[in-house]
Structures are given as C-alpha cells and as structure tokens.
Amino acid sequence: MQQSIKLSVDAVVFGYESETISVLLIRRKYDPFKGKWAIPGGFVLDSESLEEAVERELKEETGIKINYLEQLYTFGNPERDPRNRVVSVAYFGLIKPSAFKLAASTDAEEAQWFTINKLPELSFDHAEILKLAITRLQAKITYEPIGFELLDTKFPFSDLEKLYAAVLGREIDRRNFRKKMLGLNVLDELDEKVSKGSGRPANLFMFNKNRYFKLKKEGIIFEI
Amino acid sequence: MQQSIKLSVDAVVFGYESETISVLLIRRKYDPFKGKWAIPGGFVLDSESLEEAVERELKEETGIKINYLEQLYTFGNPERDPRNRVVSVAYFGLIKPSAFKLAASTDAEEAQWFTINKLPELSFDHAEILKLAITRLQAKITYEPIGFELLDTKFPFSDLEKLYAAVLGREIDRRNFRKKMLGLNVLDELDEKVSKGSGRPANLFMFNKNRYFKLKKEGIIFEI
DNA sequence: ATATATTAGCGTAAAATATACGCATTGTAT
DNA sequence: ATACAATGCGTATATTTTACGCTAATATAT
C-alpha cells in the first residue's frame, strides 16, 4: 500500500484576561496562506507522540508553555489543504495569564491574541476548528473543572464567576453560582484578601486538585 | 520534511440484541496479531475522507452498512503498532438488528459479535479504544437520541427501556423513564400493537427525527 | 467626617425536576 | 375461570434549581 497522507497537529489555545476569552493565532510565514492568520500547528515527527508534537510546535511558534491540553477532533477532508493531503489532529488548550504576557512579547508580529468575537479571516479549515473548540470549551467547563487552568493559582471568587460568564456568553447569578461552586468542595478558601479598586475586598480561593480527584473517584461529579 | 507515518481508521460497532450490547470484532488474517481478534479497520486511501474509509473497511471486512457513525478519538502513541508508526482515527458506530443477521452470516469465521462483558483478548491498543467507546456510548445516549439507531424503526416502549438499562448497566424505573422519554416529545405512538409471549400487548413507537431537529433548533435538549 | 457607590457574601422562599412507589389494565397460559 | 405477566397511568415526597432580598466591607466623592 502506498499512502502519501501527511499528518499534522493544530492547537486552539484559549486565554482569559480582562473578562474576555482570547485565542492565540500565528501569521503564516510560508505558502499556502502565506501572511494569513492560522491556528498554531505543524507536522508530526515520526518518533513523537501527538501531544509531544503539539507542545513542540507551540513552543516553536509562540513560546508558550501549555497548562491544559486535550484532543479536540481530527480533520480529514481530502480538500482541506489545497496542495497535499493533510490530516490534522486538532487539540484545544488553556493557559494562565502569567504565561500570557510571555507569549505576546516573544514575537508580536507572528503570534497574537484575538478576542473570540473579533477574529480575522483564517487559513485552511481553521475557522471550523476554532468554532468546534469554542463549543467544546463551553460544554466542558460545565462538567470538568478546567476553568481554573485559565485563572491564577489564587483568585477571588468573582474572577471565577466572570470567567464562566465570559465563556458561556451569558449572565450568571452570583449567589447561586457561589453556592453551587462552593458546594462542590473543591475550593480552598485562603486567609488572604485582595482589594482591586472600590468595594469590599475579596477572599482568595484555590482549586484543590487532590480533593477533586478524590471526589471524582467516589463518583461525585463536578457540574455547574 | 520526510514523514513515514501511516494513517488508519478503526470502527467500534455496537449492536443490541436480546437485552445485551455487543461489539463487532474481526479475526486478523495477517501479521501483526495474525489470528487474533481486533476492531475492524484499515488504512485510509489518499483520495477518500476518513468517514468514507471507515465505511469502506466495514463493508469489506464485515459486510455491514452502518446506521450511525461518529468520530471517537485519534490514537497516536508511537508504540501502538509494533512494526510501523500507525496513527489511527477511531470511530464508533451503531447498527440496527436488521443489519445484524446480515453481518453474522457473511463470514462467521472472520466477523463475530461479542457481548461487551465477554470480550476476547484484543490486538494493538484495541482494548483501550473499546473501553473509551463504551464510556462514550454510555455518556452520549443520555444527551443525544442515538439509542434509536440500535432498535428497529418501530419498537415497543419496553425495548427502549431495556436498551437503556443494558447500555448504562443499571436498572431503570420503568414509569419514570417513560414519563421522561415521552415528555421529550420525539416519539410518535402508533396504532399498532405487538404481543410477545405473555402479558399485555404493547403499543409501538417510532422516533420522529424531524421533530427532534426542530426542538433542538429551539434550544430544547434531549436528556435522559 | 459623612454620605454614597461598589463589590463581596449569606440566606430564604418558590418553582421545577427527579425519585419512589401503588395500582388498574389488557392480554396470554393453564 | 383463574393465575400470571407485562403495559400503562397517577400521586406523594425529596431534591435541585431559580429568583431575589439583605447585610458587610471598603473606596471615593462631597
């Protein structure tokens, strides 16, 4: 059997800052779609796993160290690349704001954050990939505690609430959200307070991964 | 760039009969794992889409016409095939009992149904693929109306209930299940009855796909 | 200094859903 | 006829979700 299909990986990386969700895009250096915006990615090496390929490409193209990575979908339409047959395994990832600045400063002309409502035209079928990734993020955040991967380690509760509102694109009742989230018993309340601007200073919280895994093992599911 | 990764597809096909869920497996003709049981699948041709590849391979190896097909996950561990680097896009599929008999008679020595609790040893990482497929089926049947793809077009309500009990591996309260399912407004009650053995004859029902799509568009979700 | 705005945090009542069953109905088997 | 088996309907109770009032703590304006 002679097969000339090439295999690539792509990564939709989400970040969260100033109450909006952004996606990391790069400007392509080579044809096809030279100069156009695209999701970071590239070809898989013979010896590496798919995850290794994604992390390598992300580092090469954007300098980012990913915080959460999950396989999204594999795109295999024979026409998706105008030149060769390329099948791409798409991933979606999340990073914390600390890594944020790092990426933006690495090579501002080539890698850039875009608010998910103000996206440029994209190469290949990347618009479709991105759309699927957003849907998945919205669905997933309600039944897996991945939201914390977008926040700093310590965060005021309101940050978490605003994050959920931003991802889901709708208002959230502050009081019910707090009750539900705290009721899941995966947050540790710290003895630290932060005051940003006016208003009552907020207590800081931390996500307790160990307790989450323990509860998960007992069959208790995270659900917002 | 020189890349010598081969791309294959695999399909976990579930069937439902006599109150149990079965999986379709084939006995491998060639090395590696010659003579061992495996999930049907094979290499993707340069010109075909991934879905076309799955359907072609299924037809070639088992004679089955699939009823529902959905991408599951892509397995890319470099060591998953002892000989070459093979990345496989796994699908999971469902078929109705009518196609059932057809498959069993095609080539009984090579394609066979196995109850999901009595599986033989499997080739490659197929045990892992199968495990993931079962988890996905269990999750999906509760929020998408895919269960009907495993039943005949017309079915008594108890068939649906038994199917859910079999897939989820637990008892289901007949009365509450009926209330909930009928409340979703996607079933048409027919003016036909069936009597199998003793007991009161049951009315037949049909899944109404059009109504389901209409409700879905209105944001009403199927959930059991 | 005092009032006012602003964000944090707690609690409670009502509505909607899920769960647990009781029991009549309609057929077949003996 | 009578027993049995499966279908089909209803109701009471528990649980979860939703809506929203109110107090607390701090910054900022007057």
UniProtKB/TrEMBL annotation, chains A, B:
Gene3D superfamilies according to UniProt: Nucleoside Triphosphate Pyrophosphohydrolase (3.90.79.10), Winged helix-like DNA-binding domain superfamily/Winged helix DNA-binding domain (1.10.10.10)
Keyword Hydrolase: yes
Domain annotation Nudix hydrolase: ranges: 4-138
Annotated GO MF terms: hydrolase activity
Highest taxon in the source lineage: Bacteria
InterPro entries cross-referenced by the UniProt entry: Nudix_hydrolase, NUDIX_hydrolase-like_dom_sf, NUDIX_hydrolase_CS, NUDIX_hydrolase_dom, WH-like_DNA-bd_sf, WH_DNA-bd_sf, WHD_NrtR
Family per similarity comment: Belongs to the Nudix hydrolase family.
Name under which the protein is recorded: 8-oxo-dGTP diphosphatase
